[in-house]
Amino acid sequence: MRIHSSSTIRPHRTVTTLAALLTGALALSACSSSDNKSGKDTTDSGTPASTPTSSTVSLPKLNGTTLEIAAVWTGQEQANFKQVLAEFEKRTGAKVTFVPAQDPIINFLGSKIAGGQPPDVAMLPQPGAIKQAVRQKWAKPLGPEALAELQKNYSQGWQDIGKVDGKQYGVYYKAANKSLIWYNAKVFENAGAKEPKTWKDLLTSAQAVYDSGVTPFSVPGADGWPLTDWFENVYLSQAGPEKYDQLTQHKIKWTDPSVRQALETLAQIWGKKDYLAGGQSGALQTEFPASVTQTFTGGDQPKAAMVYEGDFVQVNIGETKAKVGTDAKVFPFPAVGANAPVVSGGDAAVILKDSKAAQALVTFLASPDAATIQAKLGGYLSPNKSVPISAYPNEVQQKIAKALIASGDDFRFDMSDQAPQAFGGTPGKGEWKDLQDFLRNPSDVAGTQAKLERDAAAAYGSGS
User: Signal peptide: which range, if any (predicted)?
Assistant: First the structure.
């Protein structure tokens, strides 16, 4: 289930380039003056998100046609995406139903397909899941209209990550910059803490925050995937891109000394009970949305000062009274080694029932028209290079989007998302479970490595 696209093997220089772009971009976060802080479906002007002023994509009339699209998205993210689907309905006459899926979505789809009721389209968050869907003969390749729209609007790297055996199956509708740490600005100000550039600086800032009476970090240990993202950022920066690619493809073992070093580095934070909101046990009961909201509620006395995760955190910040760029600020994940890491992720639209309507929906999702609608709503990042930067509702988001597009093909995709589903994408199993166990007992580095290697070997060997 590994993705073998050219986009995953890049020299160190290119990673550094994007990191530098992001550093400059995020330095402007305090200048942001408009954000979707209410959590409502509005643009920066406070009005409902509107259609792009002109249609760039031709769609067929589909009056009377019904479609289903499945995704694991919930809350505001789901509500925003439904506005995109409403525009497709308006243009085509089709009726589209959003089907909430359980994680891992590949298992959810398997049960739907076994029951003879697959959705027409599914949003798959892992390249490994796309490959599994192809191997199971569930996924259908893109037709000429969708392919043309994709090729017009996406860099080669983003096209390649949606390919299996050279054929295009996925359209990455959503991207993520997963190398960001968000912080409560008032807490940092009260503590005299600085935005860190290096891991050592991060520990210094964390100690200053702790000394001021606030717990430094909110870690969503109840969800395994943010823990894999923590590891990937540390590992990419510390071990370097070549090792990152080798571990991604299981060409080196998880018992490698580079993995030990990364786990020992993580333990400098995860191993300090007083540095985690609720300690290790509390972190293991904290789900991702709560990890964000508890960082930005409570004024200057929140449950934690910092929370690590991607640009999509803005959606959850929007559920609080905090204002992005003023109350909630952000810095790039600090450099652990010579260079700061930049890890990307995303969700791809994949056709499961090949029809004129399903192809039209994916063609629409590959267009700037669809992405522009959701970009205006905030908490969303598109790899579609034809989306105007001005569509993003605040300066923080605009700069992150500009850096993503400027990077072209030069990015590293989320390691666990490229792994076999059984290892890198299943709650209670594989890497998710092993890192949760490590968060529970950060002193057991060797035991964690042994479990990671055992589970990786089983998953990569079976290709599941």
Answer: 1-30
Nearest by Cα to 153 from 177, 175, 171, 178: 171
Percent of the chain with pLDDT over 70: 88
Residue 50 maps to a domain? no
**Residue 378: its pLDDT value, please?**
86
Q: Is 100 exposed, middle or buried (0-12, 13-18, 19+ CB in 10 A)?
A: exposed
Residues 191 and 303 in one domain: yes
Domain that residue 76 falls in: 66-177+345-413
Q: Which structure tokens are listed for 357?
A: 């309507």
Number of alpha carbons in the 13 Å side-chain half-sphere of residue 95: 3
Which H or E element spans position 108? helix 105-114
Q: Are residues 307 and 397 in the same domain?
A: no
Summarize pLDDT for 113-129 with one digit per residue, the tens. 999 999 999 999 888 89
Residue 52 lies in a domain: no
Q: Note the pLDDT tens digit of each residue in 294-304.
A: 999 998 999 99
Same domain, 188 and 137: no
What is the rounded average pLDDT for all residues in the chain? 88
- Cβ atoms of 45 and 391 within 8 Å: the answer is no
Residue 92 domain-assigned (yes or no): yes
Q: For 317-344, how does the pLDDT look when each residue is reduced to its tens digit (9 = 90+)?
A: 988 999 988 999 999 899 999 988 889 8
| Beta pairing, strands 180-184 & 412-413 | unpaired
DSSP 8-state assignment for residue 116: T
CA distance 193 to 126: 36
Q: Let me know if 89 is exposed, middle or buried by CB neighbors in 10 A (0-12, 13-18, 19+).
A: middle
* DSSP code for 381: B
Q: Is the peptide bond before 216 cis (omega within 30 degrees of 0)?
A: no
Domain count, the chain: 2
pLDDT given at position 464: 61
Q: What is the CATH number of the domain that holds 438?
A: 3.40.190.10
How far, CA to CA in Å, does 287 sit from each of 16, 101, 126, 268, 457?
A: 31, 18, 20, 22, 28
CB of 206 closer than 8 Å to CB of 214: no
Say which residue the tokens 């166990």 belong to: 437
Confidence of residue 410 (pLDDT cuts 50, 70, 90): low
Are 377 and 455 members of one domain? no
